[in-house]
Amino acid sequence: MRYLYLIFLLWCGRLFAQQEPVFSQFFYNKLLSNPGAAGSTGLPCLTAFHRQQWVGLEGAPITQALSFNSPVLASRVGVGLTLVNDRIGFYNSTYAQAAYAYRVDMAGGKLGIGLHGSLLRHEADLSAVKTISGTTTSAGEQLMEPASIFNVGMGAHFENERCFIGAAIPQVLDRGLENGQVRHVFANAGAVLELSPTLRMRAAGAVRVVENAPPSFDAHLGFGFTEEARLWLGSTLRLSNNYDGLGGDALVAVGQYQISERLRAGVAYDMALGAVRRGNAGSFELMLEYSFVKATPLVAALRPRYF
Description:
mainly beta; Porin; globular
Protein backbone atom coordinates (compact mmCIF):
# COMPACT_ATOMS: atom_id res chain seq x y z
CA MET A 1 0.00 0.00 0.00
CA ARG A 2 3.03 2.29 0.21
CA TYR A 3 3.65 3.20 -3.41
CA LEU A 4 0.27 4.30 -4.72
CA TYR A 5 1.10 7.92 -5.50
CA LEU A 6 1.44 7.60 -9.26
CA ILE A 7 -1.50 5.20 -9.44
CA PHE A 8 -3.69 7.86 -7.85
CA LEU A 9 -2.48 10.44 -10.32
CA LEU A 10 -3.38 8.13 -13.17
CA TRP A 11 -6.79 7.53 -11.62
CA CYS A 12 -7.44 11.25 -11.28
CA GLY A 13 -6.66 11.86 -14.92
CA ARG A 14 -8.52 8.78 -16.05
CA LEU A 15 -11.63 9.08 -13.90
CA PHE A 16 -12.80 12.58 -14.62
CA ALA A 17 -9.81 14.60 -15.85
CA GLN A 18 -11.27 16.52 -12.95
CA GLN A 19 -9.39 19.25 -11.13
CA GLU A 20 -12.29 20.86 -9.30
CA PRO A 21 -12.87 19.25 -5.88
CA VAL A 22 -16.12 17.34 -5.39
CA PHE A 23 -18.03 17.30 -2.09
CA SER A 24 -20.86 14.92 -1.27
CA GLN A 25 -22.83 17.64 0.58
CA PHE A 26 -22.86 19.74 -2.60
CA PHE A 27 -26.15 21.47 -1.72
CA TYR A 28 -24.36 23.27 1.16
CA ASN A 29 -21.27 24.18 -0.88
CA LYS A 30 -22.66 25.74 -4.05
CA LEU A 31 -20.34 28.76 -3.93
CA LEU A 32 -17.33 26.51 -4.58
CA SER A 33 -18.16 26.22 -8.28
CA ASN A 34 -20.88 28.81 -8.85
CA PRO A 35 -20.28 32.53 -8.11
CA GLY A 36 -23.96 33.19 -8.73
CA ALA A 37 -24.65 31.51 -5.37
CA ALA A 38 -22.88 34.29 -3.44
CA GLY A 39 -25.35 35.69 -0.92
CA SER A 40 -27.91 32.90 -1.44
CA THR A 41 -27.68 31.87 2.22
CA GLY A 42 -29.58 35.06 3.07
CA LEU A 43 -27.18 35.68 6.00
CA PRO A 44 -23.43 36.16 6.37
CA CYS A 45 -22.19 32.56 6.63
CA LEU A 46 -18.84 30.88 7.15
CA THR A 47 -18.63 27.26 5.99
CA ALA A 48 -15.79 24.78 6.47
CA PHE A 49 -15.39 21.39 4.76
CA HIS A 50 -12.89 18.60 5.31
CA ARG A 51 -12.93 15.58 3.00
CA GLN A 52 -10.64 12.56 3.25
CA GLN A 53 -11.05 10.13 0.39
CA TRP A 54 -10.28 6.38 0.41
CA VAL A 55 -9.10 6.29 4.02
CA GLY A 56 -6.25 3.81 4.51
CA LEU A 57 -4.69 4.25 1.08
CA GLU A 58 -1.42 6.19 1.22
CA GLY A 59 -1.48 9.28 -0.95
CA ALA A 60 -5.28 9.37 -1.22
CA PRO A 61 -6.92 12.79 -1.82
CA ILE A 62 -7.50 15.13 1.15
CA THR A 63 -9.39 18.38 0.58
CA GLN A 64 -10.23 21.31 2.85
CA ALA A 65 -12.40 24.25 1.88
CA LEU A 66 -13.29 27.40 3.79
CA SER A 67 -15.80 29.85 2.35
CA PHE A 68 -17.57 33.01 3.43
CA ASN A 69 -20.51 34.59 1.63
CA SER A 70 -23.05 37.26 2.42
CA PRO A 71 -25.76 39.37 0.82
CA VAL A 72 -24.97 43.10 0.88
CA LEU A 73 -26.58 46.36 -0.29
CA ALA A 74 -30.09 45.31 0.77
CA SER A 75 -29.51 41.83 -0.74
CA ARG A 76 -29.09 43.27 -4.24
CA VAL A 77 -25.50 41.98 -4.28
CA GLY A 78 -23.81 38.86 -2.98
CA VAL A 79 -20.10 38.54 -2.21
CA GLY A 80 -18.02 35.50 -1.35
CA LEU A 81 -14.50 34.28 -0.71
CA THR A 82 -13.37 30.64 -0.92
CA LEU A 83 -10.03 29.08 0.07
CA VAL A 84 -9.24 25.49 -0.91
CA ASN A 85 -6.36 23.13 -0.20
CA ASP A 86 -6.32 19.88 -2.20
CA ARG A 87 -3.62 17.23 -1.77
CA ILE A 88 -3.17 13.94 -3.62
CA GLY A 89 0.02 11.95 -3.24
CA PHE A 90 2.96 14.32 -3.57
CA TYR A 91 0.89 16.97 -5.40
CA ASN A 92 -0.69 19.87 -3.54
CA SER A 93 -3.00 22.52 -5.00
CA THR A 94 -4.18 25.62 -3.18
CA TYR A 95 -6.40 28.34 -4.51
CA ALA A 96 -8.36 31.39 -3.52
CA GLN A 97 -11.41 32.66 -5.33
CA ALA A 98 -13.42 35.86 -4.84
CA ALA A 99 -17.02 35.96 -6.07
CA TYR A 100 -19.50 38.72 -6.89
CA ALA A 101 -23.17 38.22 -7.77
CA TYR A 102 -25.84 40.69 -8.80
CA ARG A 103 -29.16 39.50 -7.39
CA VAL A 104 -32.69 40.23 -8.64
CA ASP A 105 -36.08 39.20 -7.32
CA MET A 106 -37.72 36.35 -9.19
CA ALA A 107 -40.53 33.88 -8.43
CA GLY A 108 -40.48 34.48 -4.71
CA GLY A 109 -36.72 34.11 -4.53
CA LYS A 110 -33.48 35.57 -5.85
CA LEU A 111 -31.61 35.03 -9.11
CA GLY A 112 -27.89 35.67 -8.84
CA ILE A 113 -25.69 36.28 -11.89
CA GLY A 114 -22.09 36.04 -10.78
CA LEU A 115 -18.41 36.18 -11.65
CA HIS A 116 -15.38 35.00 -9.72
CA GLY A 117 -11.66 35.36 -10.10
CA SER A 118 -9.42 32.53 -8.91
CA LEU A 119 -5.72 32.04 -8.37
CA LEU A 120 -4.55 28.42 -8.33
CA ARG A 121 -1.09 27.23 -7.32
CA HIS A 122 0.25 23.72 -7.98
CA GLU A 123 3.21 22.36 -6.05
CA ALA A 124 4.93 18.99 -5.77
CA ASP A 125 6.81 17.56 -2.77
CA LEU A 126 9.54 15.83 -4.78
CA SER A 127 11.06 14.28 -1.68
CA ALA A 128 8.02 11.99 -1.55
CA VAL A 129 8.65 10.53 -5.02
CA LYS A 130 10.05 7.04 -4.52
CA THR A 131 10.75 4.02 -6.66
CA ILE A 132 9.53 0.57 -5.72
CA SER A 133 12.90 -0.03 -4.07
CA GLY A 134 12.19 2.90 -1.73
CA THR A 135 14.79 5.34 -3.10
CA THR A 136 14.07 8.80 -4.43
CA THR A 137 14.17 9.19 -8.17
CA SER A 138 15.98 12.00 -9.97
CA ALA A 139 13.43 11.68 -12.76
CA GLY A 140 10.81 12.87 -10.32
CA GLU A 141 12.50 16.26 -10.22
CA GLN A 142 11.15 16.86 -13.71
CA LEU A 143 7.53 16.03 -12.84
CA MET A 144 6.33 19.51 -11.99
CA GLU A 145 7.58 23.02 -11.39
CA PRO A 146 5.49 25.18 -9.05
CA ALA A 147 2.95 27.06 -11.15
CA SER A 148 0.31 29.72 -10.50
CA ILE A 149 -2.75 29.94 -12.73
CA PHE A 150 -5.31 32.75 -12.83
CA ASN A 151 -8.76 32.23 -14.25
CA VAL A 152 -12.26 33.66 -14.27
CA GLY A 153 -15.54 31.81 -13.80
CA MET A 154 -19.19 32.67 -14.24
CA GLY A 155 -22.50 31.24 -13.14
CA ALA A 156 -26.19 31.77 -12.44
CA HIS A 157 -28.06 30.59 -9.37
CA PHE A 158 -31.75 30.84 -8.43
CA GLU A 159 -33.02 29.99 -4.96
CA ASN A 160 -36.20 30.46 -2.95
CA GLU A 161 -37.33 28.84 0.27
CA ARG A 162 -38.36 25.61 -1.50
CA CYS A 163 -35.97 25.04 -4.40
CA PHE A 164 -32.74 26.02 -6.11
CA ILE A 165 -31.20 25.60 -9.56
CA GLY A 166 -27.84 26.73 -10.89
CA ALA A 167 -25.22 26.31 -13.60
CA ALA A 168 -21.62 27.50 -13.84
CA ILE A 169 -18.37 27.38 -15.79
CA PRO A 170 -15.55 27.78 -13.22
CA GLN A 171 -12.81 28.35 -15.85
CA VAL A 172 -13.53 30.67 -18.77
CA LEU A 173 -10.13 32.02 -19.84
CA ASP A 174 -8.14 29.93 -22.32
CA ARG A 175 -4.91 31.17 -20.75
CA GLY A 176 -5.53 29.05 -17.66
CA LEU A 177 -6.47 26.06 -19.79
CA GLU A 178 -3.12 26.23 -21.59
CA ASN A 179 -1.40 25.57 -18.25
CA GLY A 180 -2.92 22.15 -17.70
CA GLN A 181 -6.45 23.03 -16.61
CA VAL A 182 -9.47 21.59 -18.37
CA ARG A 183 -12.84 23.28 -18.69
CA HIS A 184 -15.62 22.14 -16.37
CA VAL A 185 -19.37 22.74 -16.53
CA PHE A 186 -21.45 22.28 -13.36
CA ALA A 187 -25.22 22.23 -12.91
CA ASN A 188 -27.28 21.42 -9.84
CA ALA A 189 -30.84 21.67 -8.57
CA GLY A 190 -32.90 20.74 -5.55
CA ALA A 191 -36.35 21.03 -4.02
CA VAL A 192 -38.09 20.40 -0.70
CA LEU A 193 -41.57 18.93 -0.27
CA GLU A 194 -43.43 19.13 3.06
CA LEU A 195 -44.93 15.71 3.79
CA SER A 196 -46.23 16.60 7.27
CA PRO A 197 -45.64 19.31 9.90
CA THR A 198 -42.65 17.32 11.19
CA LEU A 199 -41.39 15.63 8.01
CA ARG A 200 -39.93 17.08 4.81
CA MET A 201 -38.37 15.42 1.78
CA ARG A 202 -35.39 16.94 -0.03
CA ALA A 203 -34.36 15.85 -3.53
CA ALA A 204 -31.25 17.26 -5.20
CA GLY A 205 -28.98 16.47 -8.11
CA ALA A 206 -25.69 17.62 -9.59
CA VAL A 207 -24.03 17.11 -12.97
CA ARG A 208 -20.33 17.66 -13.73
CA VAL A 209 -19.14 17.71 -17.33
CA VAL A 210 -15.40 17.78 -17.98
CA GLU A 211 -13.54 17.81 -21.29
CA ASN A 212 -12.14 14.43 -22.36
CA ALA A 213 -14.04 12.55 -19.65
CA PRO A 214 -17.50 11.05 -19.11
CA PRO A 215 -19.97 13.16 -17.12
CA SER A 216 -20.50 12.54 -13.41
CA PHE A 217 -23.90 12.61 -11.70
CA ASP A 218 -25.04 12.91 -8.08
CA ALA A 219 -28.63 12.07 -7.11
CA HIS A 220 -29.61 12.84 -3.50
CA LEU A 221 -32.72 12.07 -1.45
CA GLY A 222 -33.02 13.14 2.18
CA PHE A 223 -35.62 13.65 4.90
CA GLY A 224 -35.87 16.45 7.46
CA PHE A 225 -37.34 15.78 10.88
CA THR A 226 -39.00 18.04 13.51
CA GLU A 227 -41.04 21.16 12.78
CA GLU A 228 -37.90 23.20 12.15
CA ALA A 229 -36.23 20.41 10.09
CA ARG A 230 -33.25 20.47 12.45
CA LEU A 231 -32.17 16.92 11.56
CA TRP A 232 -31.62 15.73 7.99
CA LEU A 233 -30.78 12.16 7.01
CA GLY A 234 -30.41 10.85 3.49
CA SER A 235 -28.35 9.20 0.79
CA THR A 236 -26.65 10.13 -2.48
CA LEU A 237 -25.79 7.95 -5.46
CA ARG A 238 -22.77 9.11 -7.49
CA LEU A 239 -22.25 7.74 -11.01
CA SER A 240 -19.30 8.58 -13.24
CA ASN A 241 -20.11 6.51 -16.36
CA ASN A 242 -16.74 4.75 -16.12
CA TYR A 243 -17.13 1.13 -17.08
CA ASP A 244 -13.68 -0.18 -16.10
CA GLY A 245 -14.46 -0.32 -12.37
CA LEU A 246 -12.01 2.48 -11.50
CA GLY A 247 -14.54 5.29 -11.57
CA GLY A 248 -15.87 7.52 -8.82
CA ASP A 249 -19.14 5.62 -8.40
CA ALA A 250 -20.23 5.67 -4.76
CA LEU A 251 -23.16 5.30 -2.40
CA VAL A 252 -23.14 8.08 0.17
CA ALA A 253 -24.83 8.35 3.58
CA VAL A 254 -25.32 11.96 4.67
CA GLY A 255 -26.67 13.71 7.74
CA GLN A 256 -26.89 17.30 8.97
CA TYR A 257 -28.03 18.74 12.29
CA GLN A 258 -28.94 22.33 13.15
CA ILE A 259 -27.19 22.64 16.51
CA SER A 260 -28.45 26.18 17.10
CA GLU A 261 -29.91 29.03 15.06
CA ARG A 262 -26.34 29.97 14.11
CA LEU A 263 -24.53 26.63 13.87
CA ARG A 264 -25.07 23.62 11.59
CA ALA A 265 -22.95 20.47 11.31
CA GLY A 266 -22.92 17.79 8.63
CA VAL A 267 -21.22 14.48 7.89
CA ALA A 268 -21.04 12.20 4.86
CA TYR A 269 -19.62 8.72 4.35
CA ASP A 270 -18.91 7.47 0.81
CA MET A 271 -18.70 3.77 0.02
CA ALA A 272 -17.06 3.27 -3.37
CA LEU A 273 -18.89 0.94 -5.75
CA GLY A 274 -16.03 0.20 -8.16
CA ALA A 275 -12.77 -1.72 -7.86
CA VAL A 276 -11.24 1.15 -5.91
CA ARG A 277 -13.30 0.15 -2.84
CA ARG A 278 -10.84 -2.63 -2.05
CA GLY A 279 -8.14 -1.84 0.48
CA ASN A 280 -9.69 1.30 1.98
CA ALA A 281 -12.25 2.27 4.61
CA GLY A 282 -14.29 4.59 2.42
CA SER A 283 -14.36 8.39 2.27
CA PHE A 284 -15.35 10.78 5.05
CA GLU A 285 -16.56 14.36 4.83
CA LEU A 286 -17.26 16.86 7.62
CA MET A 287 -19.06 20.20 7.31
CA LEU A 288 -19.53 23.06 9.78
CA GLU A 289 -21.52 26.20 8.97
CA TYR A 290 -21.83 29.30 11.14
CA SER A 291 -24.28 32.15 10.50
CA PHE A 292 -23.15 35.48 11.93
CA VAL A 293 -26.59 37.06 12.28
CA LYS A 294 -29.00 35.38 14.64
CA ALA A 295 -32.35 34.85 12.95
CA THR A 296 -35.42 35.94 14.90
CA PRO A 297 -38.09 33.28 15.54
CA LEU A 298 -40.27 34.93 12.87
CA VAL A 299 -37.52 34.82 10.22
CA ALA A 300 -36.65 31.23 11.12
CA ALA A 301 -40.28 30.22 10.76
CA LEU A 302 -40.73 31.98 7.42
CA ARG A 303 -37.50 30.80 5.78
CA PRO A 304 -35.80 27.75 7.29
CA ARG A 305 -32.54 26.77 5.59
CA TYR A 306 -33.00 23.58 3.55
CA PHE A 307 -29.93 23.98 1.29
